[in-house]
Specification:
about 40% strand, about 300 residues, binds pyrrole-2-carboxylate, 8-stranded mixed barrel
Length: about 300
């Protein structure tokens, strides 16, 4: 029996598995995450894919932490692979743990495969996460993108790897979502074909575009293509972290000053950073999350789509 609690953070869904996930042992979280992706991808896809979910959804498997100071360990995944960290899903996880009566308002440490993050639950629906140290790896990388021509951007780490495009050829506005998906997917293919990777050969599997905000409180509006191939409805916590790292490195935004990021659907995160070690920053992302359902997933052997729809 697999029991889940669904929430959304700024429109982006998180499905927390509270019972019935695979037993990954008690090794380091990075090892357990590898095991999940290598041996249980079918389970992950069954939980998140249509007809139960869709590619935009992120799963959060609760696991025992190694570090005893952590309230929980968690492995994030989407319909195609694991995520290192996930900002929106960490906010969703906090609200879910509160809903379950497992935490109250306050500050907690959470262990993820890419490090320990701190998080604060402010009230039943609002929370902050102090993300892993984030940094820009390379500036002004140009690539030839099929049908679009030359595109230039920065490569940065915010808990996942991002290619942040400086000037989007397509205006970052809701009515262009289809075109933005095509453009960013073509950029990701170009990164792959031109073998442009992160320092240890990791794929750069998130692409982020920027434009003028519609909301007067916001400094920018973004569009983020996720590694699942779908786009983030929220302003993307790890994407904001990567963006802040670039702004900080270019001297364009000072430490501790609020940067409000608007998402492609208009939801907002309040963000800020402090300098960490070397050229790394420590970002804080604040947003709101709401529980949408509690469910027991059924995997009927007679159901041809019990493991999700795949083409
Ligand atoms: O909020 O970090 C995030 C995120 C990554 C992918 C989807 N959301």
């Amino acid at each position: 029996m697999t029991r889940v609690i669904d929430s959304h953070t700024g429109g982006e869904p998180t499905r927390v598995i509270i019972e019935g996930g695979p037993d990954l042992g008690n090794g380091p979280l990075s090892q357990r995450a590898r095991l999940l992706e290598d041996n249980y991808l079918e389970f992950c896809r069954a939980v998140l894919c249509e007809p139960r979910g869709y590619d935009g959804m992120v799963g959060a498997l609760i696991v025992a932490p190694i570090n005893e100071q952590c309230v929980t360990g968690v492995i994030f995944f989407n319909t195609s692979k694991n995520l290192g960290m996930c900002g929106h899903a960490t906010l969703g996880l906090l609200v879910t743990l509160y809903h379950l009566g497992q935490i109250s308002f306050g500050v907690y440490k959470i262990e993820t495969p890419v490090g320990i993050v701190s998080a604060q639950l402010h009230d039943s629906n609002s929370a902050s996460v102090i993300n892993v140290e984030s940094y820009r790896y390379k500036k002004n990388i140009s690539l030839q993108v099929e049908k679009f021509g030359k595109v230039t951007g920065d490569i940065a780490w915010g808990g996942n790897w991002f290619f942040l495009v400086q000037n989007s050829l397509i205006s970052v506005q809701t009515q262009n979502i289809g075109k933005l998906v095509n453009f960013t997917s073509a950029i990701r293919r170009a990164l792959e074909l031109q073998k442009i990777t992160a320092p240890n050969g990791e794929p750069i599997d998130h692409v982020e575009l920027y434009g003028k905000p519609n909301n007067k409180k916001a400094h920018s509006k973004n569009f983020v293509l996720c590694s699942s191939g779908d786009y983030d409805r929220s302003p993307c916590g790890t994407g904001c972290s990567a963006k802040l790292a670039c702004l900080a490195e270019d001297g364009l935004w000072p430490e501790n000053k609020e940067w409000v990021q608007e998402s492609i659907i208009g939801s907002l995160y309040s963000t800020r950073y402090k300098w960490g070690s070397g050229h790394h920053i420590i970002p804080t992302i604040t947003g709101s999350a709401f529980i949408t359902s509690e469910a027991t997933l059924k995997f009927n052997l007679l159901d041809p789509y019990r493991n999700g729809i795949s083409f």
